[in-house]
Amino acid sequence: MTPATYLLCYDIRNPRRLGRVFRTCCKVAVPYQYSVFVLTATRDDLDALILRIARLIDATEDDVRVYRLRDPQSIQRLGEAVLPHEILALP
């Protein structure tokens, strides 16, 4: 499978769950902003990450979303870059 770039973001209500999800995401993704990560992964690797996160959250209180970035070059931003340009190859 060919890797793709994804944007993973979450809103976790409980501080303990928040910490666990954050640490799990840091193992495979780059933190971009608070509760927002960028990762490059195959679909199988992404599915495995989602399964790990699903075991950590409370689906009645928490919200986790993953968006595929079809063209990371098209991202527009304002202000100072948080990550080195090489992470997403931003102009």
Helices and strands in order:
Layout lengths: L3 E8 L3 H12 L3 E4 L2 E6 L1 H14 L6 E7 L15 H4 L3
Antiparallel strand pairs: 1-3, 1-4, 2-3
Question: Can you put this structure into words, describing what you see?
Answer:
The chain is an alpha+beta fold. The chain has a single domain (4-69), classed as Alpha-Beta Plaits, CATH 3.30.70.240. The chain contains three helices and four strands, in the order βαββαβα. The chain has helices spanning 15-26, 43-56, 85-88, and strands spanning 4-11, 30-33, 36-41, 63-69. A four-stranded antiparallel sheet has the order 2-3-1-4, covered by helices on one side. A hairpin with a 2-residue loop joins β2 and β3 (36-41). The chain is globular.
